[in-house]
Amino acid sequence: MLKFEFKKLDYVMVMVENMNRSVEFYRDVLGIPLKFTSDSWTEFNAGTTTLALHGGGRPNSNPNQEGPHSNLAGTASIGFNVEDVQAVYEHLKAKGVKFMLQPTSRQNEGILLAVATDPDGLEISFAQQIKQE
């Protein structure tokens, strides 16, 4: 039997409708370092994982129709660990980022969580580890 090990998640690819709008959001609003960009493919340095944008996505006619974490099969979200979720929330909200969930304590998960959306409606979570008692 062939045995192998997954070392790390290499990249996450997000289909986007408008590459320029999405690059501006991830680079200028969220501040993720840009590796390179083209009309159809863009990569950002998100730590040990690459965040890739793929152009040509069709518009989502009902983004976030069911609210945060809608549990629809075949959907995904992006999650970032942050030091201070309240500061991230306030900074991004001031830049016009739409949030579906303001910083909320998730005691059973040991995190403070805030959930925003990108220009195409993709959920982006920001989590801060908190001490569990």
Protein described:
The strands form 2 sheets. Strands 1-4-3-2 form a 4-stranded mixed beta sheet, with helices on one face. A 4-stranded mixed beta sheet has the order 5-8-7-6. The chain is α/β, with parallel strands linked by helices. The chain has 2 helices and 8 strands, in the order βαββββαβββ. The chain folds into 2 domains: 10-59, 2,3-Dihydroxybiphenyl 1,2-Dioxygenase, domain 1 (Roll); 76-133, 2,3-Dihydroxybiphenyl 1,2-Dioxygenase, domain 1 (Roll), CATH 3.10.180.10. Helix content is 16%, strand content 36%. The termini are far apart. The mean pLDDT is 87. It has helices spanning 19-29, 85-94, and strands at 11-15, 34-37, 41-46, 49-54, 77-81, 99-106, 111-117, 123-129.
Structural class: alpha/beta
User: How many whole angstroms does the radius of gyration measure?
Assistant: 16 Å
Task: Tell me the number of helical segments per DSSP (H or I, 4 or more residues long).
Answer: 2
Roughly what is the average pLDDT, rounded to an integer? 87
Strand order of the largest sheet: 1-4-3-2
CATH level 1 class label of the largest domain: Alpha Beta
CATH superfamily of the largest domain: 2,3-Dihydroxybiphenyl 1,2-Dioxygenase, domain 1
The sequence of SSEs as H and E is: EHEEEEHEEE
* Domains (count): 2
Give the overall shape. globular
Share of residues in helices: 10-25%
CATH architectural name of the largest domain: Roll
β-sheet strand percentage: 35-45%
Number of DSSP strand runs: 8
What is the straight-line distance between the termini?
Answer: 44 Å
The low-confidence runs, each spanning 5 or more residues with pLDDT under 50, are none
